[in-house]
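User: Let's play a game. I give you a shape written as tokens, and you guess the letters that built it. Ready? Here's round one.
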């Protein structure tokens, strides 16, 4: 079964109102949790958190689909209605119309819970009259029962050992029909949804829905009072049990003395009154000497009703409804029904489910106060947090139920500190942005300069008649000029049109292995190679390779020996090398021959002079 009350995180705004409003602190504000955490084991199903949640992030378990399945089944169906219908459906002019609207959903019989109230009330009257020295707390409200079982387990034996009027009425109906049937309870208390799970015997109720859920069923089935006739509640019908939604309605139904001077019963209603009266009962019952009839107050308010507020008006409507119900009341028949069902087993037992959190050590409370910026004797006690004092707040903080941010003084102080820190960070951010803009402008200028330099370099490389290629250590081409692509062949020229400069291409795909090995040698050894003749596709190429970045990048100059200007320059260069070597040898010979060879030396000098002039002319032509 899904939990009765749950939080929808996507709607939660972290206002922590639910944490403040929960009477038993079943909702915690945990530091490492994004949203408040609802602990269902600690929940008493009062619905205070649902009522307080402005963004409607807290919901209760819907029973609409379950009710639809029952209504669509072929089994005999019965509905039990709370007298709170008078406060909820004030727009319906006559309760008999309302009864027929219920039957129009597919229900065969409709009973009011008031007879179950009357039956329980008579048991209460007898029980209280037969006083044996123990004072009791009424057990009609499941919220009150949950509260005592979980937070005052020492009082379990002081709970009146009777079922609620809802369960008592279910027992009456099953006794009357004596055949398989499904019972749907319709009322204002969401706690009834979990209460019905306790019974699988003759008090079994198959489904419990609230008034908003009933309205939805009416809407989906297009049912309103203008489309139905009158219909009366099935018998047995109640008497004063119709006053049950009012604080002392059960006491009125039991005809218990309410004279303040002589009564032995105190009637209490409301969240705060419930908690305080039960705590006081536990500590002072020996002095008070009174039974306690306590109701949380969800019969005329709470999430199980559509209309909110106007408590006095709702009480008036319930009283008006009760008077109308007993206009044609037959008391003799009512007495007979009470006698007929008086032997039903309506007793029950209660179980301790202690959810109390041990009180924290004093030093932990002091530490919590210190976190809040307070000393034990220096408390603001502004009550904005929902606690009576700063110490109470610190105690729950030490228990791990709440976080310091729920204290308004703490939040304001830390908000101010955070604002100052944020201001400093904003100022630093502005300065950083300025510095970043300067650096960005500088980088853009450098980028533009680098781009222009790159463009200029590319233009210059492409003007050279020699092929230029730059290769990295992976034999990937970093840059190559148009002449290199032309020398290498058509494939390189075609790729160059798509990928300018053959950037990223593999050198091994364009040149012989011998050439790539030469580049690899130069990069690995950082040693230049000059004027190496290599064959590529049957053509003679002259290659010079030099390191650019040690062990990383090398550059190569490739010349096509077929080009006329290259042929002439290369022939002159190589003849010059031969002549230079021969002249050096002749000079050495002449020196050895001495003055006798002076004529030969003169002749050779004239040759040298002539050669020098021709060499200069060749150089000029080569330029």
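Assistant: Ready! My guess for every position:
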């Amino acid at each position: 079964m899904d939990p009765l009350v749950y939080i929808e995180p996507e709607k939660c705004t972290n206002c922590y109102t639910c944490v403040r409003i929960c009477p038993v602190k079943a909702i915690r504000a945990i530091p490492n949790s994004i949203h408040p955490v609802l602990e269902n084991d600690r929940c008493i199903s009062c619905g205070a958190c649902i009522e307080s949640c402005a963004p409607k992030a807290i919901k209760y378990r819907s029973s609409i689909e379950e009710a639809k399945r029952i209504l669509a089944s072929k089994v005999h169906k019965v509905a039990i209605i709370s007298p709170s219908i008078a406060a909820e459906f004030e727009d319906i002019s006559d309760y008999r119309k309302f009864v027929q609207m219920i039957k129009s959903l597919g229900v065969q019989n409709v009973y009011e819970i008031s007879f179950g109230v009357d039956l329980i009330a008579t048991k209460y009257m007898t029980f209280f009259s037969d006083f044996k020295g123990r004072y009791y707390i009424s057990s009609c409200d499941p919220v009150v029962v949950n509260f005592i079982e979980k937070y005052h387990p020492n009082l379990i034996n002081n709970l009146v050992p009777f079922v609620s009027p809802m369960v008592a009425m279910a027992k009456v109906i099953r006794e009357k029909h004596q055949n398989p049937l499904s019972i749907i309870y319709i009322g204002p208390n969401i706690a009834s949804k979990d209460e019905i799970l306790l019974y699988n015997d003759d008090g079994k109720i198959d489904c419990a829905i609230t008034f908003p859920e009933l309205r939805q069923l009416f809407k989906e089935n297009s049912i309103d009072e203008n489309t139905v006739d009158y219909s009366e509640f099935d018998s047995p019908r109640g008497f004063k049990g119709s006053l049950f939604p009012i604080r002392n309605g059960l006491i009125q139904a039991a005809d218990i003395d309410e004279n303040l001077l002589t009564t032995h019963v105190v009637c209490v209603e409301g969240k705060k009154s419930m908690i305080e009266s039960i705590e006081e009962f536990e500590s002072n019952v020996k002095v008070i000497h009174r039974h306690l009839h306590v109701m949380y107050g969800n019969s005329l308010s709470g999430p199980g009703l559509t209309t909110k507020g106007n408590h006095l008006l709702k009480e008036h409507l319930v009283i008006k409804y009760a008077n109308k119900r007993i206009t044609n009341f037959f008391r003799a028949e009512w007495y007979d029904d009470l006698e007929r069902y008086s032997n039903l087993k309506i007793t029950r037992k209660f179980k301790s489910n202690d959810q109390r959190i041990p009180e924290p050590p004093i030093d932990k409370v002091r530490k919590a106060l210190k976190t809040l910026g307070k000393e034990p004797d220096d408390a603001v006690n502004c009550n904005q947090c929902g606690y009576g004092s700063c110490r109470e707040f610190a105690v729950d903080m030490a228990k791990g139920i709440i976080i310091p941010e729920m204290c308004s003084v703490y939040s304001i102080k830390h908000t101010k500190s955070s604002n100052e820190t944020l201001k400093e960070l904003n100022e630093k951010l502005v300065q950083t942005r300025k510095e970043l803009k300067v650096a960005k402008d500088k980088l853009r200028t450098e980028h533009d300069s680098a781009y222009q330099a790159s463009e200029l370099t590319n233009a210059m490389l492409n003007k050279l008649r020699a092929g230029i290629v730059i290769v990295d250590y992976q034999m990937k081409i970093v840059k190559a000029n148009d002449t290199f692509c032309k020398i290498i062949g058509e494939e390189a020229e075609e790729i160059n049109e798509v990928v300018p400069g053959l950037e990223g291409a593999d050198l091994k795909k364009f040149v012989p292995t011998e050439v790539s090995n030469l580049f690899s040698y130069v990069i690995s050894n950082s040693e230049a190679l000059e004027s190496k003749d290599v064959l590529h596709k049957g053509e003679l190429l002259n290659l010079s390779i030099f390191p650019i970045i040690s062990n990383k990048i090398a550059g190569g100059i490739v010349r096509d020996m077929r080009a006329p200007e290259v042929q002439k320059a290369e022939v002159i260069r190589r003849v010059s090398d031969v002549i230079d070597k021969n002249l050096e040898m002749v000079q050495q010979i002449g020196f050895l021959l001495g003055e006798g060879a002076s004529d030969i030396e003169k002749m050779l000098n004239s040759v040298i002079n002539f050669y020098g002039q021709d060499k200069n002319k060749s150089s000029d032509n080569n330029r």
